[in-house]
Amino acid sequence: MRILLVEDDPLLGDGIRAGLRQQGFQVDWVRDGEAAQRELRAQPYAAAVLDLGLPRLDGIEVLQSARQAGVEAPILVLTARDAVPDRIRGLDIGADDYIVKPIDLHELGARLRALVRRAHGRPRERLQAQDVVLEPASRTVLRAGTPVTLSTREFDLLHVLMLNAGQVLSREQIEQHLYSWGQEVDSNAVEVHIHRLRTKLGSGLIRTVRGVGYVLLNERTEDR
User: Fold this and answer.
1) What pLDDT sits at residue 87?
2) Residues 106-159 pLDDT 10s
3) Is the peptide bond before 147 cis (omega within 30 degrees of 0)?
4) 8 Å CB contact between 43 and 28
5) Do the beta carbons of residue 45 and residue 4 sit within 8 Å?
6) How far is residue 7's CA from residue 14's CA, in Å, rounded to a whole number?
7) From residue 18, how far is each of 105, 150, 179, 182 by CA, in Å?
8) Do residues 76 and 47 lie in contact, with contact meaning Cβ atoms separated by under 8 Å?
9) DSSP string, 161-212
10) What whole-number distance in Å separates Cα of residue 143 and Cα of residue 39?
């Protein structure tokens, strides 16, 4: 799950990025409002963590600009401004949630997972398709009740497909969800991970739509 972190404090930003990476998030980190505005419009992030006290462009302006530009990604505001009027203004402009500094990284991760679930119309944390169950918080997968061991990238790919069950995703869209800045992507990486998921979870879970991409099927059907 790829998110954008917008925080100008180098120590806090480094700590948040490290903590979220430990929870399985792919994190792109920018340090000013102009960069945040540019990235939110350019990349399909699953969510964003946005500080308000930013150089170059204030976080409230970034938030307002993003919503006016049609950015739909959930945005969690991270701020030291704990006055109620500030929180109300941010929520009215388009923030989806608020955390006041200092923060607990596990709570931040849980809030981000909840925001992403709701954005995909999935209020429950547990995701299920056919006989496969995925638990995002514990990063575990069961098939017919039996634990299945997946690599980090296999789990992330399955998570993306399950959040978008029934929707065809291109290879490029999948790569944008799975890889943050600076990570090398082999040309056939997605195909390799799809093959491994089919080997471990059954060939009828993920269908290839030739010339388009891949789709995860909620109901069993003949694989093509």
Assistant:
1) 78
2) 999 999 999 999 998 887 788 999 999 999 989 999 999 999 999 999 999 999
3) no
4) yes
5) yes
6) 9
7) 10, 22, 15, 15
8) yes
9) HHHTTTS-B-HHHHHHHH--TT----TTHHHHHHHHHHHHH-TTSEEEETTT
10) 37
